[in-house]
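We close this part of the discussion by returning to an individual protein. In the encoding step, the backbone of a single protein was reduced to a row of integers, each denoting a local shape. The sequence in question and its structure tokens are set out directly beneath this paragraph.
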Amino acid sequence: MRIHYLENLATAGIGNIADWARSRQHTLHATRLHAGDALPDLARVDLLIVLGGVPQDCTAWIDTEIAFIREAVHAGKAVLGICLGSQLLAEALGGQLVPATHAESGWWPVRLRDGAQAHPLLQGVPESNTLFFFHRNTFTMPQGCVWLAQTSACAHQMYAYGDRVLGIQAHPEIQDEGIAYLAMHKADSLPVGPYTGLRPSDAGRADYLFRAKAMLFHVLSNMEAIMREAPTNAVRS
């Protein structure tokens, strides 16, 4: 499977995504939008992954990126949006990126909604999981999407469009060094609130890191299985 990711921020690593791709012997390529890279030819992409970032730092390319995500969805590609990527995916599907009531940072429990475990993209994903967060924005739920998960701080945590498009507000891709960087350099960039609990010791939560990685591996393997059965499933506009 040909995986391509859109990088909105130089420090937004792909972490567990790269580990999964290597384990399955898939190709992995990047467009570093922050560095001025050109977008790829969709004909060479099976799975598009949109990573996180800071919206106000992406103004030079964000509209083009959203249009490209929309094109990928309509072409029947598998699409995974993470953090800002989930917000931009929501915009591509007709939702809106909006400020969240509460910023979230650190590890917080995520609960799947009733029936969410039956969705093809969440096969094998536990009903409750503790995931890592670092965000101050959220999204309105696009029409036609299935709302899959929530936290106490932010209702819209995960959603699906059809059987091959998924948005995740959390960071299941992040590894210990990414958390350590955020705790050391970025913890004070979010407004202080009841759910901004990031601290350096969060990088040492091997139990949470292991389960978050397992959750992401389930999602990616589910996408892989769906794409193997039906490589293209174009959406008619």
Summary: Residues 206-229 form the longest helix (24 residues).
